[in-house]
Design brief:
By secondary structure, this protein is of the alpha/beta class. The protein has one domain: CobE/GbiG C-terminal domain (Nucleotidyltransferase, domain 5, 2-Layer Sandwich). It has five helices and five strands; from the N terminus they run βαβαβαααββ. The chain has a five-stranded mixed β-sheet. The model has no long low-confidence stretch (mean pLDDT 90).
Length: 132
């Protein structure tokens, strides 16, 4: 069974609506049937009120990602933002978070998607679980 991980990145000013918008956009574009779905979020953003509201509405669980884990996943990130690299140490927070949680053999199925107000981003990674 596969596991889908949706990584989120967002500015402090992001609203629940911004986060829910990119989350819904990415979820709607997933072409493959997936098993468990979780939201991967940088550890320092896990208590953001907009995130908590969007997660509750989507019924997805939040999994926090340490900065070191995102930096290790950065080699597999496709989108590269110089600003995000300077600020966070990765080319794309949402892609790095998704890949870090999905695992070393995961692949991106949706690259960075940006909300209309440009305050939130999301990407999706999938891993194949070979255990029964």
């Amino acid at each position: 069974m596969s596991r889908l991980v949706i990584g989120l990145g967002f500015r402090e000013a992001a609203t629940a609506q911004s986060i829910a918008e990119v989350l819904a956009s990415v979820a709607a574009r997933i072409a493959e049937p997936c098993g468990a779905t979780v939201l991967a979020v940088a550890q320092d953003k896990a208590a953001h009120l907009g995130l908590l509201a969007a997660a509750q509405a989507s019924h997805y669980q939040i999994e926090m990602v340490a900065t070191d884990a995102m930096r290790k996943a950065d080699a597999r990130v496709i989108t590269r933002s110089a600003r995000v690299l300077r600020q966070r140490g990765v080319g794309s927070v949402c892609e790095a978070a998704a890949l870090a949680v999905a695992g070393a053999d995961a692949r991106l199925v949706i690259t960075r998607t940006v909300s209309a107000d440009r305050n939130a981003t999301a990407a999706a990674a999938i891993s194949e679980d070979v255990a029964p």
